[in-house]
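re: the backbone from monday

yeah here it is again, tokenized this time
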């Protein structure tokens, strides 16, 4: 029996479980719990990002943009900025309305953030100015993004868009009964409405005003409980009722008396039961329809937080199939125009398959290196470790998404090393002559105890390299957090499984101890003999040292030079390959819906004609398409004006096309710009971002002392961007100057005639905009039916018709609007934007060309922007991802993806520094030396010799995942170096000379180093062609190859030089 006092933690653990009946139960339980976790974990394509933000709307009718800014935005921003945890406060001040967006720090609790915000708003309600409504708070989160969109369309002539929307609304009501359904929204079509088109001339003849009509209709649409009758034996409720249920009910309402005759509504107005008059249009162009276009209604469906998108989509589609026999008539098609449940399922299944391939590949590698017995032992450890990690994901609250699964795949090549070390040492001990005939149980426990402490150290070294990345801040840190947390958990589980399950499995599958040969005298291969022959003169000649390290420095410098030479492009995340993208169209303000629709239709026809991969295109004019995470951050759902349109372009699945979605988007961009340019509009091709979205790839924030000056400078910047071949999709957040016709009420005339100014304003609003007079009470209708009143279409085309509307003065005279008002031609107010309490004007753009990274246009355009003159004649200051805190000068701040990129690489740099410190401390504690850790850590930067050229050769961008791979690889590099140094010191203790010891270490211990590197390469190869995580795979694979080969020489040489200097050159 081994001496328990010298076994340590690893040996004691192995001794307890090596022949325990609990060990197989633990393995079985681990696998079952992992399968349970896979089944229960909610599946999503993207990870949950906790970034609470809220929209606050404050209507202030009649106020100019500047007044809204002064009375609403300035005060509201200051108060909201006081809330702990608030990171950004944005505001938009427009005529009649103020909107403030409050964004809390990433990772803040949404419920707690809402409570803080609500308390602050309510406690400052007394600051809301007179004339403003109480603030309306709208929470926003990633769960608001619809996971499913169903588009209803038909070729039947007998079903108009009112009937189509009614069908969709009935389906919506049924879907709302399903579990875990959150918000459902209907887009497109028209609701049923009772429309009242009043005739101004007939009203004047009857001496009735439009406001009189509105008041009468509202008064006749009521029902109230009147009380009850009670007696000795009965109790009877009584109510009065005058509800409007039909058009006939409306027509018969008496709105006045003229000449002793009752005037009914039908006498002074035309009434219709038809579609509402909202200025929006939705249609679909299915590829299967051969270029035809049909009116459509889209039903978007969101899910509750933490629920499984795959299950929800499955349940909804089952419900829709069932309703086709009851609510959805023949000839009405339901096209799935978004299905994030399917994409989540496909992605998770694909990655689970890749994880299985990686696991099998690593086990096969071990089989080739150690035989089937050792591979079987390791093959039991890896699934158990992965299963426990999946259980950890479930308990921690992660979902099963591309990031968590990538974390597992990334970990496979690393976590297998603990089991390899233990199995290899057990096998080596079993072959020692001194252990011949001993029970394999005892040999296994001693072997585990021997490598236990170094294995624990090496495991914590890898964790020390990975875990600091969990503290990366911002959206990107939250997005990627599962990788460092999941990988660290996997390493801990792999260590426990190596000490618990591996000795038990080795006792069963490995051969009993027998001295076939002594591993210490095993014949060496020709490569090892060549290594010894080459290393001996390298150690003995000083010039050889200089030549070797000179070559290393040259290789390192050449590799790093690839970055400034732009052979390796630096970008936060490369483009993904999705099955959709959007075309966002902004026509000049004031453009009619019909003109916007023509521009959108021409764009859709062009895309359909040149992109064979298109599955269908939805055209949303005057309203927004169902938004994704990108649209949530950019607030696309507020795009509800007639001059705005969205094209939702859906592609066939990525396995059914050769081109990526990004290549397709790039191919259409130039012509789409030409098409929309002919109509005088602006356009952006908005791809689904590969990670957390930003306002735009390139954002130039213009600050300055004068708003008009800011707009002028923004126009200059827009001109600079438009000339750059590296920039596309240029847009701006200021309105083109729009004419405004203002009718100013003459106070004297108004007062003398007894007609209040507000009556004039309300009458004109009823006439031109229209107003709702309440609901027609039709319970069978799935949506509310408004009673809507306004002028007929023909009379709304000219202002003269509205000016001819007459009022009745107290003395009985008819006074036209034209007499009480005077026309003034002016310009509409520009919206005023704020960011963190500073006025700002945004200029936004995207990148194009070979580099496609915002860093390079910024560097290329900085000098040209420096040469610009601000409106006051001063120079323009530039900032990068910072606050332009110069209120008395004009300044430009580069934001957007540049800000996120700077933050991510800064935080990863800090994490890398923390990694180096932690690893240094761990190694100092183990070797009790301040210098030896420097030798061990020296190969870390040498990994770049492989990483950067590999990125250049494969055309991969050096992204945040690339940096993560480099940092994580540092732990593996150090692990290999520890193997070498630990063996050198073992040989020195055995009496070997220093030069022989360092040569022997590189010769003998290269096999486990090579096996570790090969496991990493094989394990991560399955993600080499993933568009997002290719950089991580390249960094790990190329970094391992370079560092393993170089450290085999560099570490022994450096250790030799260090010890020789310590001994005075002897």
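seq for it, each position gets an aa:
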């Amino acid at each position: 029996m081994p001496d328990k006092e010298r076994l340590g933690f690893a040996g004691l653990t192995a001794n307890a479980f090596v022949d325990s009946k609990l060990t197989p139960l633990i393995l079985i339980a681990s696998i079952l719990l992992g399968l349970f976790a896979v089944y229960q974990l909610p599946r999503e394509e993207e990870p949950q990002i906790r970034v609470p933000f809220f929209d606050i709307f404050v209507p202030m009718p009649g106020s100019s943009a500047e007044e809204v800014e002064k009375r609403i935005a300035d005060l509201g921003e200051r108060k909201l900025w006081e809330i702990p945890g608030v990171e950004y406060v944005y505001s938009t001040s427009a005529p009649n309305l103020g909107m403030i967006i409050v964004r809390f720090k990433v990772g803040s609790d949404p419920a707690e953030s809402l409570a803080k915000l609500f308390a602050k708003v309510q406690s400052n309600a007394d600051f809301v100015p007179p004339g403003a409504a109480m603030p309306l708070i709208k929470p926003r989160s990633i769960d608001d993004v619809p996971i499913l969109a169903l588009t209803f369309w038909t070729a039947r002539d007998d079903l108009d868009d009112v009937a189509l929307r009614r069908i969709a609304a009935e389906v919506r009501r049924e879907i709302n009964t399903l579990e875990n359904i959150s918000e459902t929204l209907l887009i497109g079509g028209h609701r049923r409405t009772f429309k009242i088109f009043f005739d101004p001339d007939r009203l004047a003849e009857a001496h009735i005003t439009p406001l009189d009509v509105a008041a009468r209709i509202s008064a006749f649409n009521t029902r109230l409980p009147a009380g009850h009758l009670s007696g000795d034996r009965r109790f009877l409720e009584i109510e009065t009722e005058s509800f409007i249920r039909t058009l006939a009910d409306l027509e018969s309402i008496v709105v006045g008396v003229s000449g002793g005759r009752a005037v009914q509504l039908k006498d002074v107005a035309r009434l219709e039961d038809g579609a509402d008059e909202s200025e929006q249009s939705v249609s679909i162009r299915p590829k299967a329809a051969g270029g035809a276009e049909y009116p459509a209604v889209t039903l978007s469906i969101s899910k509750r937080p933490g629920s499984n998108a795959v299950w929800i989509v499955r349940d909804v589609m089952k419900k829709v199939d069932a309703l086709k026999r009851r609510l959805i008539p023949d000839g009405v098609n339901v096209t799935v125009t978004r299905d994030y449940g399917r994409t989540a399922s496909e992605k998770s299944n694909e990655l689970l398959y890749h994880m299985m391939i990686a696991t099998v590949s690593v086990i096969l590698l071990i089989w080739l290196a150690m035989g089937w017995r050792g591979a079987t032992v390791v093959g039991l450890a890896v699934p158990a470790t992965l299963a426990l990690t999946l259980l950890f994901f479930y308990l921690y609250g992660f979902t099963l998404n591309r990031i968590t699964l990538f974390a597992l795949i990334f970990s496979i090549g690393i976590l297998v090393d603990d089991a390899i070390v233990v199995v290899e040492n057990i096998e080596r001990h079993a072959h020692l002559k001194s252990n011949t005939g001993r029970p394999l149980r005892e040999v296994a426990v001693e072997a585990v105890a021997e490598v236990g402490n170094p294995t624990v150290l090496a495991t914590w070294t890898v964790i020390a390299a990975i875990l600091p990345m969990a503290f990366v801040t911002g959206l990107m840190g939250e997005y990627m957090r599962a990788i460092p947390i999941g990988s660290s958990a996997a390493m801990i589980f792999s260590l426990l499984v190596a000490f618990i399950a591996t000795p038990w499995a080795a006792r069963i599958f490995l051969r009993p101890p027998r001295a076939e040969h002594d591993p210490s005298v095993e014949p060496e291969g020709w490569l090892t003999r060549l290594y010894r022959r080459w290393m001996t003169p390298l150690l003995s000649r000083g010039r050889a040292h200089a030549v070797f390290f000179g070559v290393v420095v040259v290789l390192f410098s050449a590799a790093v030079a690839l970055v400034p030479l732009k052979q390796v492009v630096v970008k936060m995340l490369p483009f993904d390959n999705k099955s959709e993208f959007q075309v966002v169209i902004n026509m000049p303000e004031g453009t009619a819906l019909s003109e916007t629709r023509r521009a959108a239709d021409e764009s859709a026809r062009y895309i359909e004609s040149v992109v064979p991969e298109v599955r269908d295109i939805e055209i949303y004019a005057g309203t927004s398409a169902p938004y994704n995470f990108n649209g949530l951050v950019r607030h696309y759902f507020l795009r509800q004006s007639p001059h705005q349109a969205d094209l939702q372009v859906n592609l066939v699945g990525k396995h059914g096309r050769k081109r990526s979605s990004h290549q397709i988007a790039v191919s259409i961009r130039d012509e789409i710009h030409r098409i929309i340019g002919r109509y005088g509009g602006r356009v952006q091709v908005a791809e689904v971002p590969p990670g957390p979205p930003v306002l735009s790839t390139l954002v130039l924030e213009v600050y300055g002392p004068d708003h008009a000056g800011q707009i002028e400078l923004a126009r200059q910047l827009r001109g600079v961007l438009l000339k750059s071949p590296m920039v596309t999709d240029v847009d701006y957040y200021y309105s083109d100057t729009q004419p405004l016709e203002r009718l100013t009420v003459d106070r004297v005339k108004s007062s003398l005639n007894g007609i209040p100014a507000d009556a004039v304003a309300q009458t004109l609003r009823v006439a031109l905009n229209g107003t709702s007079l309440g609901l027609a009470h039709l319970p069978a209708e799935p949506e509310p039916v408004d009673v809507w009143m306004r002028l007929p279409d023909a009379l709304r085309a000219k202002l003269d018709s509205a000016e001819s509307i007459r009022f009745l003065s107290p003395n009985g005279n008819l006074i036209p609007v034209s007499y009480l008002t005077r026309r003034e031609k002016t310009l509409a107010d520009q919206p005023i934007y704020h960011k963190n309490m500073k006025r700002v004007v945004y200029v936004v753009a995207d990148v194009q060309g070979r580099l496609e990274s915002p860093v390079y246009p910024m560097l290329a355009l900085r000098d040209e922007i420096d040469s610009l003159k601000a409106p006051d004649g001063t120079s323009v200051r530039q900032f990068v991802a910072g606050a332009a805190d110069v209120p008395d000068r004009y300044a430009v701040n580069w934001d957007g993806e540049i800000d996120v990129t700077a933050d991510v690489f800064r935080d990863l740099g800090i994490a890398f520094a923390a990694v180096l410190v932690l690893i240094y401390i761990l190694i100092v504690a183990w070797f009790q030396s301040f210098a030896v850790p420097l030798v061990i850590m020296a190969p870390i930067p040498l990994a770049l010799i492989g990483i950067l050229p590999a990125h250049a050769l494969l055309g991969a961008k050096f992204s945040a995942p690339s940096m993560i791979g480099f940092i994580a690889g540092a732990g593996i590099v150090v692990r290999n170096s520890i193997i070498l140094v630990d063996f050198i010191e073992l040989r020195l203790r055995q009496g070997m000379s220093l030069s022989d010891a360092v040569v022997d270490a590189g010769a003998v211990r290269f096999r486990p180093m090579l096996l570790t590197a090969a496991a990493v390469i094989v394990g991560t190869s399955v993600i080499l062609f993933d568009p997002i995580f290719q950089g991580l795979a390249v960094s790990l694979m190329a970094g391992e190859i370079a560092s393993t080969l170089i450290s085999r020489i560099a570490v022994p040489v450096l250790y030799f030089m260090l010890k020789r200097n310590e001994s005075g050159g002897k």
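The mean pLDDT is 88. The longest helix spans residues 340-396.
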